[in-house]
Write a structure and sequence with these properties.
Layout lengths: L4 H25 L3 H15 L5 E5 L7 H7 L2 E6 L2 H15 L6 E5 L14 E7 L8 H14 E12 L5 H17 L4 H14 L5 H11 L2 E9 L2 E7 L1
Parallel strand pairs: 1-2, 1-4, 2-3, 4-5
Antiparallel strand pairs: 5-7, 6-7
Bound molecules: S-adenosylmethionine.
The site of S-adenosylmethionine (SAM) has 20 residues, from α1.
Length: 239
């Protein structure tokens, strides 16, 4: 996942500690989280040429899985964090009942298990708030190449990412607004500070141009930005 073992350990620890509180915290940190997930999962379906199989890469607590399972015959959720996956498993069984068998959960990453993703396996890949936790451009590119390879011809990638503004002044303004909206939505000092720290110390955000370069280099074409809220953008790209 990263070239820096201590950063990797910090992130794994973050998601181990955060697992139980994640579903609450993410809605404070991402004020449009539910709307984004609805849009990104609908887009994965709407833009896919077939609805057989969808991958949710970096599924976390699996919030996208029941939404994707409404559209696709089979959904695979992959994540390196066992506590996050345990919550995803509980969510799937609670929300999908008998249809939970259509969802498979796998622990790992494209870096930890290079053969994790079979070629040309999926009609759509959904990847929400994940790439920014991969440390170097090289490692991000390698993950994007694996996602590209696992898509069927003309398969679709829906990618939601926290980006970095190219201009330092814009970056400051965006963060001031982000902090204000978190507090407006009920974050106390501790939560708002934690959100700020996580973005600045544990994330490795690309600029919009940097992300597009990586998508190009991984083989994706025609990346379209379909949504933006503060520093978070959603892009749809095709194999
Ligand atoms: C902010 S959460 C996003 C979870 C979920 N996709 C969502 O939208 O709520 C980031 C997730 O990415 C996972 N993650 C971190 N590095 C990863 C990697 N290299 N490959 C796949 N998942 C990774 C973490 O374990 C964590 O569950």
């Amino acid at each position: 996942m990263t070239n820096n073992p201590s950063a990797a350990a910090d992130q794994a620890e973050l998601f181990r500690q955060m697992a139980a509180g994640y579903d609450h915290a993410i809605r404070v940190f991402q004020p449009t989280y539910d709307a984004m997930l609805q849009l990104s999962t609908d887009l994965a379906c709407a833009a896919a040429t077939s609805r057989a199989r969808c991958l949710d890469y970096g599924t976390g607590t699996g919030a996208a899985l029941p939404l994707l399972a409404r559209h696709f015959d089979a959904v695979v959720g992959i994540d390196p964090g066992k506590p996050m996956l345990d919550l995803a498993r509980a969510r799937v069984s609670q929300e999908l009942g008998a249809d939970a068998t259509r969802v498979t959960l796998v622990e790992g990453t494209t870096a930890s298990q290079p053969r994790l993703l079979p070629p040309a396996e999926f009609d759509a890949v959904h990847c929400s708030l994940v790439l920014m936790f991969i440390e170097s451009d090289e490692a991000k590119l390698s993950a994007l190449r694996a996602l590209h390879s696992t898509l069927r011809p003309s398969g679709v990638l829906v990618l939601t990412e926290i980006l970095r503004d190219a201009e330092a002044g814009d970056e400051q303004e965006t963060f001031a607004l982000w902090n204000a909206i978190m507090r407006q939505r009920g974050a106390n000092d501790v939560l708002a500070t934690r959100g700020d720290q996580q973005v600045h110390t544990l994330m490795h955000r690309c600029t919009d141009a940097g992300l597009r370069d990586l998508l190009d280099a991984a083989g994706f074409c025609s990346a379209v930005k379909v949504f933006q809220t503060l520093h978070t953008s959603m892009l749809v790209a095709r194999k």
